[in-house]
Write a structure and sequence with these properties.
Blueprint: H1 2-25, H2 27-32, H3 41-59, H4 65-88, H5 97-118
Helix pairs in contact: 1-3, 3-4, 4-5
């Protein structure tokens, strides 16, 4: 189980780092999905990108892994309004209505995935 756990954590970290980098490579994509009621769109896109990269890296550092996982949970909750906004305004990202609908619970899956690493380590989870 430890090997699967390690691979899963690495995949989550790579996903976050990649998503964070994309905030800088293609900020226009993230700017168009920002709900209009939020201020400082460009700044929020850049800050969220920084946090995604930072938390992804820290997830791989054992001393900071739990804290990083809690940060990822918080970040995913914080960006959920953008996913909801895209669902309400599907013309922003060309995709089928089903794809837009599935993005919403997928965010919950990512939150649970990060929470898996935020919880205290049980004796049964420790390698022998």
């Amino acid at each position: 189980m430890t090997k699967i756990n390690t691979i899963s954590k690495f995949v989550l970290a790579i996903f976050l780092i990649g998503a964070g980098i994309s905030h800088f490579v293609n900020p226009a994509f993230f700017l168009k999905i920002m709900p209009p009621y939020l201020p400082l769109h460009k700044e929020l896109v850049l800050v969220s990108g920084i946090f995604e990269v930072l938390l992804g890296v820290l997830l791989l550092v054992p001393a900071y892994s739990r804290w990083a996982a809690w940060g990822i949970v918080a970040l995913l909750i914080a960006v959920f309004p953008a996913n909801l906004y895209v669902f309400q305004h599907q013309e922003l990202i060309p995709a089928s209505p089903l794809v837009h609908l599935l993005r919403l619970p997928l965010q919950g899956v990512f939150i649970l995935w990060a929470y898996w690493y935020a919880r205290p380590v049980n004796i049964a989870d420790k390698p022998e």
